[in-house]
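Q: Hi! First time doing this. I have a protein sequence and I read that you can turn it into a structure. Is that right? Here it is:
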Amino acid sequence: MTHVPYKGASLAVADLIAGHVPVTSTTLTTAATQIKAGRARALAVSSAKRVPEFPEVPTFAEMGYPELTASIWFSLSGPAGVAPEIVSRLNAEVRRALQAPTCASGCVPRASNRAISTRGNSRRSWPRS
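A: Yes, that's right. Below is the predicted 3D structure, encoded as structure tokens:
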């Protein structure tokens, strides 16, 4: 297999469906439309459990690769030294917005296993260099 660098995942998916590359590794959210249209086939997901929107797609663990798990996360970040009361207020408001019915159905891609962490929790899982 040859690594082909792309400037974006959508370009890799476009080359996949055009037949220019045999496989690509991308987010399920990026490829979901092409998978649903039958132009691409999801071989496995890297999450710990199957994605509800694609229940037929196995995890890598189910395929015999239990160590191959990965997730993608997004954060709302600010400069160092932001006052704790501002962090708490932002955390509360963002959590409230993400849990609102209009956002819960549209803000977070359906082809993902959504989890909301509280302020400061995600830092513990960051890789150390």
